């Protein structure tokens, strides 16, 4: 049974930093794409960042490029989202997701992901 368990959310002031973790278990993710999405109240779920487990290639949404960094720890089967220079508009529930390699399907598409975590709340105060 595949499980993705997020942790590390919380309340932080604007300009601050947080590190989210996603512990993955239940299968081998060696050829998977692992990603972070977020969803603010009243808004659709949106892509934040992704990393290819096999080679570490990363992808970012324009809104977080230069501020957020996604990374992985193969030994711990965990991915991280390092968030710096946080803004109030970063406030959302952050979800970890995983999918098999799919050619021709954008990694931006939430519906293309096979597995999801339960989410962790990030609140940035102004």
Describe what you observe in this structure.
By secondary structure, the protein is an all-beta fold. The chain has strands spanning 3-7, 10-13, 18-25, 33-39, 46-52, 58-60, 68-73, 78-83, 92-99, 115-116, 120-125. Strands 2, 4, 5, 6, 9, 10 and 11 form a seven-stranded mixed beta sheet that branches. Strands 1-3-8-7 form a four-stranded antiparallel beta sheet, with no helix packed on it. It is globular, with a radius of gyration of 14 Å. The mean pLDDT is 95.
- The end-to-end distance, rounded to whole angstroms, is 40 Å
Overall 3D form: globular
Number of helices: 0
Please describe the biggest sheet, giving its number of strands, its sense, and whether it closes into a barrel. 7 strands, mixed
Q: Whole-number radius of gyration? A: 14 Å
Determine the fraction of residues in helical runs and give it as a percent range: under 10%
Oligomer: single chain
């Amino acid at each position: 049974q595949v499980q993705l368990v997020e942790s590390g959310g919380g309340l932080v002031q604007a300009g601050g930093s947080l590190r989210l973790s996603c512990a993955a278990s239940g299968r081998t993710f060696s050829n998977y794409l692992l990603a972070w999405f977020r969803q603010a109240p009243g808004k659709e779920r949106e892509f934040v960042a992704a990393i290819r487990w096999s080679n570490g290639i990363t992808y970012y949404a324009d809104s977080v490029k230069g501020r957020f960094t996604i990374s992985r720890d193969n030994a711990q089967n965990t991915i991280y989202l390092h968030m710096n220079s946080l803004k109030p508009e970063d406030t959302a529930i952050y979800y970890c997701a995983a999918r098999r390699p799919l050619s021709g399907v954008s990694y931006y598409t939430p519906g293309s992901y096979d597995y999801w975590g339960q989410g962790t709340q990030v609140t940035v105060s102004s």
